[in-house]
Amino acid sequence: MTLTFDKSAYCNLLTKVIPKIIETEDEYEYVMLVTEKLTFQKDRTPEETALYKLLVTLIETYESEKYALDEVRPHEALQHIMEASETRQSDLVGIIGSSGVVSEIVNGKRSISKSQAKALGEYFKVSSSLFI
Questions:
Q1: Domain HTH cro/C1-type spans what residues (predicted)?
Q2: pLDDT at residue 2 above 80?
Q3: For residue 11, how many other CB atoms are within 10 A of its CB?
């Protein structure tokens, strides 16, 4: 079953959120709240998914300009995401390998393969490029 995109429903969503280039911390926080709700919403409509993607793009643009980071190593990005999401190493066993492999990856003793990066990206709902 393919869901069709309802332009009217999308316009209603846009009217509620009024997405625009993020210029202030208050705007950033508001867009983050809306995006967080959409992130964890089950059974998102195609219109909600389109809005979600738009908001994520606006957030990424704002963060890249406002919070330019030094180069972060893949295992450091993984550690940060794990901490922020309260994910334990044991939660990743079976997703990217055995407990030994997970430990080595998290501690930077083993590099993250492309297939593991893809699995991590899907698990955390982020771009796999963070882990490469």
A1: 89-131
A2: no
A3: 11
